What does this fold into?
Amino acid sequence: MLETRDLYKRFGGLVATNHVSLSIEAGELHAIIGPNGAGKTTLIAQLAGELRPDGGAVLFDGRDVTALPVQHRAAAGLARSFQITSVFPPFTALANVALAVQAHAGHSFRFWRDAARDGRLTGPARQALDLVGLGPRADVPAELLSHGERRQLEIAMALATGPRMLLLDEPMAGMGPAEGAGMVELLRKLKGHYTILLVEHDMDAVFALADWITVLVNGAVIATGTPDEIRSDPEVRRAYLGEETV
Amino acid sequence: MLERTNEGNKRETAAVLIGLALLVALPFLADAIGKGFYVTLFTRILILGLAAVSLDLILGYGGMVSFGHAAFVGIGAYVVGILSWHVFDGSPLMTWPVVIEGTENGFVVWPLAALMGALFALAIGAISLRTTGISFIMITLAFAQMLFYLAIGLRTYGGEDGIALYNKSGLGSSIDLFDKTTFYYVCLAILVVFVWLCRRLTRSRFGMVVRGARINERRMRALGFSPYRHKLTAFVISGAGAGLSGALLANAAEFVGPAYMSWQRSGELIVMVVLGGMGTLFGPVVGAAAFLLLEEGLADLTEHWQIVLGPVLLFVVVFARRGIWGWIAGPAREDR
Amino acid sequence: MNTLLLVEQGLNGLQLGVMLFLMAAGLTLVFGIMDMINLAHGSLYMIGAYLTATLTPLVGSFVLAMVVALPLAALIGMAVEVVALRTLYRREHLDQVLATFGLILFFNELVRIVWGPQPIFLKPPDWLAGTVEIIPGVPYPAFRLAIIAVGLAVAGFLYLLITRTRTGMLIRAGASNREMLGALGVDVKRLYTLVFGLGAALAALAGAMAGPILAVQVGMGESILILTFVVIVIGGLGSVRGALVGALLVGMVDTLARALLPTVLRTMMPPSQADGMGASLASMTIYILMAAVLAWKPRGLFPAHA
It folds into this structure.
């Protein structure tokens, strides 16, 4: 589904992505873990198209998308959630998701009809909100939602663009244990329906959910395999000594 | 789609209705207290209110700080002025490739003013919107200045001195724009229709994209939007509104000159929008009223009224960001 | 139009370019380092001109008047920064536009109250009043040559300041990466005030030197301010090198277009029409230049922020 070949990116003297080659199969949940500063967010930004790599290629569905800008990759079915919550605070939860629906399915040069009463937008938007468990909060402005609810909203927006693949950048960041458990539950629901690339710090969640794990350290892949293989990999254990409890 | 409390909603509706009622009754009130002069003043307020609403469409909703909006107002005014001049002069505007004669028919001239405003906005917007932030501000200002100098260079049409209109636009025999009350109501009707159109527009799918781009353009891209085209379209619509207001302004003043396009005018329009309340549709009208009344009041007190206005602006920026409308209509975060 | 006239116009273009550079250098640093749009920069130009015009008869020397006026203008600039602008750095650009627009209205009116609405005419000092034939056959006003010399000297001084001193290093660092300054443990506030004062002094210098060429009057600051914006947009925000290139480009193109276009048009149409149209087209050329540069490089020729 998604593949990178020899991806390379540097910022001045710092190599953020060091010849990373990944292959993510359709339908799998592929997690990327690594200590802080390992280049995970930089990698996601290159996959989503926000950053141009200095070398290598990104292939989506076998097609080279390395030069494709963000909005075209999104339109092709590659949806991304942000590490720092990035919703539209003044809009209601429903309007946030409706906007995502519109991006995917609607025409945006419609000047007359009230978008808030457009069933072709609000219908799928409500579905997505229900799926992530935000149905009852549909009419609340995003700025009044709790942190956890906003992360759920992020996912709902990503889902509403009708993606074939989700890039989730630390969906559990800043969540309490209860909220975190809810998010794991949600991801479990999504798993199998979507191809998912998950970047996450919460190791329990990663090992519970992932089909495949890639470990990134200093921008380079040091190990890749099933959760069991990763757990027993000596190099990973060394890199993660003391980190695992994060 | 912003949740406004029900109470807030009612309060805003009430404020709009009361405001509208006052505007409708204004000529009678002015007559009753024997100050017919207020009809003329409020006609100006309505016209500049129209220009301010059109600016707020891109400034408040679209987050595009255009510092050249007066240029589009001026273009609308010049359309009226130039076509009227040719009627007076008896010469055609052009003879090739088609013959175009001057005209004072409002049903032709006013839409044409809006159209020309839109066309110039298309050209200027297409280039300016390639940039953001400070560059965008400076570029819109620079293009407006270019049109200002172009107007000064129009020697046939008065150059620096402008053109005095010998006639107002005609709207058929039953509507006489020389009657100041009639002209007032025509302006009021146009403003009401324009605000209503903008209200539909800002809530439509298109409006949501433009507003979304103001709040977080990067996120809009990640969702799959290319906001450039939407922003440009909003810029063009805004230019059309400004062009129309320019046509009215030319009729109100019976004069057209380069001063309409000066950068101070653009600055004043921004002031009106912010003073009244950005990102609302009624705020800019209230802002235009506040600005012109303040100007009128201060000018009575001292010829150096701008020395007061300057610090007032600083004060508004630092302390009163919500604008007058936010204060009247209650605690709403954004229109809707 | 012969070659000698062309040389003369070229020198005029250089002189305008140098003036624009003096305005643009300070302003572009304020844009680059503080991410702040300051419309009131033109007011400092105007203040520089008025102070010099007032002081010249008092101290009996144009140059001496400038020597007093520039630090005064720098102080006024720094005072404005401390009182009004400092609170605006972190605000939206729109707030900055409004607030500095208010400042312009205030300063213009203040000047009108103090000096009255009539323009003041200033004479160049006697020893610069004549002409010099730097190229045989082209007598050129000595005062304008002096402007060019001063401008180029300032450009050289700024180059040394920015590349060779610690303050300059900080200015460069700030212009390309704002966050870094705080991280370096620099007293950012003081640096900002200093940069502002420097910009004010340069603007006042331009204003003072413009005095004997143009009339000293209210509103003189704004017409050059908008030209300066064009220069900065073309050169790239925050880049002093860009400001220099942009200023010379704009100065040259504007001057040559004004000199040449009417003549060229006269070959195609009746003289009266040609002059009118030539003048309008000439005043539009630099904006067309700006549009062309932006279509090619939206961030200007030398963008400071990578």
About this structure: The beta strands of chain B are 163-164, 255-256. The two ends of chain B are 5 Å apart (CA to CA).
